[in-house]
Amino acid sequence: MSRFLSGVVCAAWLCLPTGLVAQQLFELPRGDAALPETSAAERESLRRIEAHLAFLASDALGGRETGTVHGQITAAYLAAQLHSFGLQPAGDDGSYLQAYPLVRTWLDIDNLLLEVVAPDGTRTSFKALDDYAVRDSGAQGCALEAEVVFAGHGLVHAESGLDEFAGLEVEGRFVLVFADSPSGASDPNLRSAANWRTKQAQARQHGALGLIVVNTPGSERAAQAFAFAKASMAERDAMSLGGQPKDSKAFPRLYVEPQVAGALFSAAGKDMAAELAARTDGVGPPGFLLEGVRVALHASVAQEDLTSWNVAGMVVGSDPVLKDEIVVLSAHMDHIGIDREGDVFNGADDNASGTTTVLMVAQALARDPAALKRSVLVLGVSGEEKGLLGSEWWVAHPTVELSSIVADINIDMVGRNDPHSIGITPSDEHPQYNNLVSRAVELGPAADLKVDWFAGEDAYRHRVDEYYYRSDHLNFAEAGIPVVFFFAGEHADYHKATDTIDKIDVAKVLRVCNLVTMLTRQVANDPERPVRINP
């Protein structure tokens, strides 16, 4: 086992050229006769894209679940590819790999207890999965009973002069909020304030014990979030970063259906429908303590310590000074594994397509490193599907100086929908809008792509800013690094076993590869670092 694969099981065939691996082990989705009328070089690129996809999205990779042997093999595959391209190891101890600790926890759902305690002591219990889901119950579980403070939609946005926590005493209490934001809120900046992570952070900062999010009727985003929370809990496990203090307190996030929230309001003599209606066209009246009402949550968990890996390789720049500055090119390589019925979630679009794009761009850049003034760090992260964990760990424990990073270009789900369009965030209405984005928009036509603020088709068409908090660039942005996120939108196969390679538009993936290559080269060679542009 060579040093660059230290710590990861590596089969000998992983070191074979990509095309040979795919031809020997997997059936490619199409032959040369079916490739578009293109040049020999383009046909070769399409074959390499298909070969990467054929491996990464195969049943043999078992859905690339973080913390499993399939996740290990995925990391080994990326490391082997970066080694074959000639990138320098940029992981731990002279390797391409960065190991990080995880804790897998699973709830004892059969004994999970959620009760609304009325002022007269009457207790009303609810059924897990039907009425509510629990996330972040802590590695040790929790047994909490506390008062409840209602904080509207839980929005805090300084630029809009908005703070729904203002004047509320939430310390030592649960905070109850409606999901999303009021349907009439027109300020696009509220999208960031309406994200559950932001609401949870605000509740924690104010000293709350936990966050209760109400599945707001009529909100598609809320419905999707609740469905995902319930599905995750049904699989009976969740992951968090290891290395945390063993006595660290849980901060549970409860997703509750309207019947649970209605019981809370009713017990305090309030009407949930009236409170929601008061906020339909904007932020309504101040929140309040639900007088005499308490919530009891008892959650028992079991846990297992795991290890996962990120993969990092460097194309070293040629400029004596600028080579010490780094452009990060990132994609998450994990997906959601195999379900209880044995169905493999191949994740061809999510995110074998983005991982393939990063590999293709890495190979293109490595062919002529002298053409790059700055260095380029190619980063494959795991744990994205578990809450952006791999990138969170990497940013907190970077394998290069974090201050040397000038940009993160992140790729996730780029193989479906309109063949000549790619979505992007942060948009010109987003507070983190920057000249990485404006450059990408300008470069789009050269790659035969329209770079658009929207992605997806029909019912799945949404502004890409709505996904700003849902992929790994977020952890770089929160460290003050300018970011750009390429995303082609969701579809009916998102997070389903039907996200398979036969549905990937390989020609579109090649267009995205060309666009990302051009953008990376431009950023690597610009005398100035990327900067924010005031929207």
Please provide a written account of the structure.
This protein has helices spanning 18-25, 40-56, 69-85, 190-193, 196-205, 220-234, 258-267, 272-277, 348-366, 389-396, 435-443, 473-477, 506-525, and strands at 88-89, 97-107, 113-117, 123-125, 132-135, 142-150, 156-157, 162-163, 174-178, 210-214, 238-241, 253-256, 288-299, 301-315, 326-332, 375-381, 405-411, 421-425, 450-452, 454-455, 462-463, 483-487. The chain is of the alpha/beta class. It folds into two domains: 3-100 and 309-525, 3-Layer(aba) Sandwich (Aminopeptidase), CATH 3.40.630.10; 109-299, Glucose Oxidase, domain 1. Strands 1, 2, 11, 14, 15, 16, 17, 18, 19 and 22 form a ten-stranded mixed β-sheet that branches. Strands 4-3-13-6-9-10-12-5 form an eight-stranded mixed β-sheet, with helices on both faces. α1 crosses α2, α2 (40-56) packs across α9 and α3 packs parallel to α9. The protein is globular, with a radius of gyration of 24 Å. The termini are far apart.
For the record, what CATH class of the largest domain applies?
A: Alpha Beta
Query: Between the first and last Cα atoms, what is the distance in angstroms?
Result: 51 Å
As a percent range, the share of helical residues equals: 25-40%
Number of domains: 2
- How would a textbook summarize the main sheet? 10 strands, mixed
- Structure classification: alpha/beta
- List low-confidence stretches: 1-35
Please tell me the overall pLDDT. Answer: 89
Radius of gyration: 24 Å
Number of helices: 13
Total beta-strand segments: 22
CATH architecture of the largest domain: 3-Layer(aba) Sandwich
Q: At the fourth CATH level, what is the homologous superfamily of the largest domain? A: Zn peptidases
CATH topology value of the largest domain: Aminopeptidase
Shape: globular
Beta-strand percent range: 15-25%
